[in-house]
Amino acid sequence: MQNQFEICIATSDHQNFAVIIAAEMESSAKARGTGIAKRTASYIAEKMLEGKAVIAFNKDGIWAGFCYIETWSHGQYVANSGLIVAPEFRKSGLAKAIKKKIFRLSRTTYPESKLFGLTTGLPVMKINSDLGYEPVTYSELTQDDAFWAGCKSCVNYEILLSKERKNCMCTAMLYDPKDHYEPEETKEDFKQHSKLYDRFMRIKQWKLLRPFLKKDLIKFFSFFN
Ligand SMILES: CC(C)(COP(=O)(O)OP(=O)(O)OC[C@H]1O[C@@H](n2cnc3c(N)ncnc32)[C@H](O)[C@@H]1OP(=O)(O)O)[C@@H](O)C(=O)NCCC(=O)NCCS
Known about the structure:
By secondary structure, this protein is of the alpha+beta class. The protein has 2 domains: about 5-180, Gcn5-related N-acetyltransferase (GNAT) (Aminopeptidase, 3-Layer(aba) Sandwich), CATH 3.40.630; about 185-225. It has 7 helices and 7 strands, in the order βααβββαβαβααβα. A 7-stranded mixed sheet has the order 1-2-3-4-5-7-6, with helices on both faces. α3 packs across α4 (about 120-130). The N and C termini lie far apart (about 65 Å).
């Protein structure tokens, strides 16, 4: 997987790919036969312009994957939506790498926000849970009507309505930065910090031992005098 793809934050330079991405999202949803909120090419291009999207290419510059950020309830909630990997590049860890990148971008841009996702897909559940998301009931998600309006184009929308938005076919997952345990070892900068810490300890030990080393040397030389 490493070096096989270039994964970057999308910019205006990538707008030409919006049409391909929207088409792939639609055909993948049809192939799966499951519901998906429909995204237009212009909506995707807008996300690119806002710096709220991640795009991936293979080493020959062929478009390989995409995902974008949406905010709800005045920024209290953030969703990393529209994850898509081109069929020829699937099952090589690309979705995982894209989600990691957009997760970091979301955490940096909206450090106080809760991150959430709604999915029927096992790969996405696996990836989210590796990132620290936990399964929750729909009551824990944004109650912003604009978010739920996105489900209107989903084939399961009638089910969602019949359950009064409390339940549907998708599993809800949430990452709450204020209620989240992250082991030190999984933190990205742990290695960097531990290297700095090792260096700090070596300097400290050397400084502490130096006076004793000097004394011993003095004793050693005084023996010959
Ligand atoms: C879902 C999708 C993004 C996964 O992309 P991918 O690059 O193949 O995923 P990855 O290779 O990063 O795999 C991530 C994990 O899911 C697993 N996985 C991938 N495809 C899977 C499948 N079809 N069934 C079960 N598990 C699968 C992988 O083994 C990996 O698990 P691991 O961490 O335990 O090794 C891709 O299939 C896709 O674009 N599908 C159509 C759009 C879609 O469904 N988007 C999600 C909307 S919520």
